[in-house]
## 1
Amino acid sequence: MMTAVRRHLPLIAVVLAAFSLLLAYLNKARCAGPVFSEFGRSENFDLYKNQLVCYSDIQLLWLGRDIDRHVFPFIEGGITPDGRLFGGTVEYPVLSGVLMWLGAIPSSNDAEFLFYSALLLTPFALLTAWMLAKLGGHRVLLFVATPPLIMYGFHNWELPVVFTAVAAIYVVTTAQTWSIRTRGIVAAVLLGIGLCLKLYPGIFVLPLALYVLTEGKKERGHFDFRGAFSVAGAAVATVAAINAPFAIAGFEGWRASFEFQSLRRADITTNSIWYWGLLPRMEDETVYDAWVELLSPALILTSFAVAVAVGWWTYHRHGTYPWVGVSAAMLCGFLLFHKVHSPQFALWLIPFFILLRVPWQLIGAYLLADIAIGIGVFRYFYDLGAGIDPTGGSELVTQVGVWGRAAGLVIFYALFLRASYVPDENDTITRDTSPVNAYTKTHSP
């Protein structure tokens, strides 16, 4: 019986993911229609988005970025002196902009935009579920049967970028008939595509390049520098090839998306440790902004450097560079110190809970903190708008979420750098026989 379940686990994961996505859509659709303004905005969205916690960026951005006018992104866009985007420019990398445009083509209001965007995003989640089941076995339930997929599956355009990150790991792990260099190059192309959807997969290129540089070379006394540079070059070439047409056709609109992000403040909408931890201790918001602009990138880069260095130390002790664990730790550093930590970013992290052996209890605690922020912050906005004192209620829940996630990221940063890679102990797939690092099966939950 168990053997049959294990054999059919990828299919089971896909079915469960489909069911969770249906719930995800129904949850967000509570904010959609049936009464619309002349611009296609749902009356329910403005009334209930915070009160019923059915808000989504998909519905919100139907207006304000010329998506409702079916303008192809970036080409004729730009940014005003006060930081407002116009002419089809969106605040995301170019491929996310194209996905938004595709979802809008058959749409005449924000409810239809939500529906068609959900149809567009669903295959990416189903493919991700299939790969995670192949790699992580029953642990795939963390992706397909926990609240984040239901809460955030159609909150924003996260599912395609999660797919590219998981697909890169899947290729490196399972395509054993290819050389390590070839696997690394293909994975780098996938990570480059991911960077053109949302930026975070780009940070995984460095540990991947170090993995290709070192894998199998320690005993022979040399490194595969050509392979490492090929990995980096493949990622850079992919990003350049995807961005070049947009930059050439509409440089100002393309550049505006980067300027928008650089100008964004760590304010009440960003759910960051900076807003909730640093701002209350500052008398001058201008000084606060300056400190955030200095500290945020400095601490992110420091966390990256420490993770890469620990990975190098692990390589010297055990002969294989733990690129998946280092990537996961780098993501923790990014999420912790970046000035924006949106609730849907939980979808970025969950695949690493599946692929790396960390205690279930800590995963559960992190997911509870994520639920607190995912619900609490919108109820907090509702209370503020309705004139209700949020102190001790929604504000407390929000802060539990903010600081619970922050504490979890610190802990997972350390654990990921020691955690064994699940597929190395999973006999359902073809794999390398060398251990990824020293955190052995005896430490597994």
## 2
Amino acid sequence: MKENNDRPLPRVRRTWRHRVAALGSALALAVTGTVVAAPQPALAAAPNYDGDPTQYWNQVLVDVFRQLNGPDAAPGRLARAAAMMNAAIFDAETMYRDQWRTRLYQPYLQAGRYFSLGETDHEEERVIGRTAYNILLDLFGTATLHSPSMTSLLDQRFTHRFGTSPTDFDYLDLQVVSSVVQRMRQFRSDDRSTDSTVYTLSPERGAWRPTGDPSCTAAQNAVTPNWGRVKPFSMTSGSQFRRPTPEQAITYDQLLQTTEYQRQVDLVRRFGGAADTAKTKLERTTPQTAAALFWANDVDDTYRPVGQLLVHTGQVARQLNVTSPYENARLYTLVSLALADAAIAAWDTKYETRIDLWRPESAIREIDPDWRPLSVDRNGNHFSPCFPSWVSGHATFAGAWAGIMTRFFDGNATFTVDTEDPSAPVKSKTFTSFAQAAQENAQSRLWLGVHYPWDADDGMAIGDAIANHVFTNELTELPTTPR
């Protein structure tokens, strides 16, 4: 995903008259207490502030995810974008809260007060929306080799929300948005997310190799092999919560000779196949098949695993009556920071440890050449994601999401969430706890035929450790009463 680091911020027309009028108004307010209204263009349409603003912009983000292709849609890249947008929203919202002395939490990067022209013109909506728009424009406004520019979509969604063009002048761009977006841009400018070094395959039996699916035929198809080296959003390093290698093996040969490895290969063979073969009778139940496909969302034109959990965050927030824009911004930011670090930690395990484990498909087809995983794309091709098996990214995301949600809501809850996987026979499911949903998400990867049980177990453990770290250290409550 290519970012345009030279884009002026924010995307507004800055005439000399606009600057003087806005800054003059702020100065008059500070010195005399008198508000001198700055010239404002007429609204193209009435604002449509339906629903929470942070939820709205996360819906826009997920719409962007649906249109990305190839490496642009890699899990780490999507999680990074979500963390950047939501953390910037939270810092902008924190500046708004500082202005009205209602701040409860520490910012993610930095905050501060600004000169306000009053509450009557929906400042909270504007600081959130204009910040989100400019972060997304920075990330997705330039076309890549795989995906089109999202500028038109972003402009449309901005105008739908505000009734104006994003290029129309707003004094909050000068006082809030520009500084927040610039800080986030600088914070992530050298985070190693653009490292495109090609993966080097190992010839050892048990080491990951392309499975031969249409999009996974060579080493250069390995998805973001350097993502474990990306600078975390909260962790100290990608390896901070790294688990011991399976069976504490040092070499592939050691691992493949263990009884546990052989047991896990046999479990995936019996429960994760697409259909019966001459050598393997499928034992997966109908509910397990439904669960496997419910959590998949690995194919184009879906919201992908990261987007699914962002959508689930909004669905839960609405069902559990999170109505404060401040609390919604905090919830989404905590979730997004945890997901972003979960991607880094999972990819650290996949590529930076002694064991870059091959997919079950590669192991099982030595035993049963006709075996294929249940996982299927829109063209009917059965596939395994094009990166090592241990640990599961889905499971790591699931553990991180459930860990944040359980801590934020202080326990369990009953909620209903959905899926966009085109093969899923069940489109919505109800759970009685966040851990229950996460456990099914992790376990579903075995039933889909693309992961071993330890991929799920270790991923869940890493994800929950990240959630605990993020919730303990980020956006924490102020030590004193609100100012």
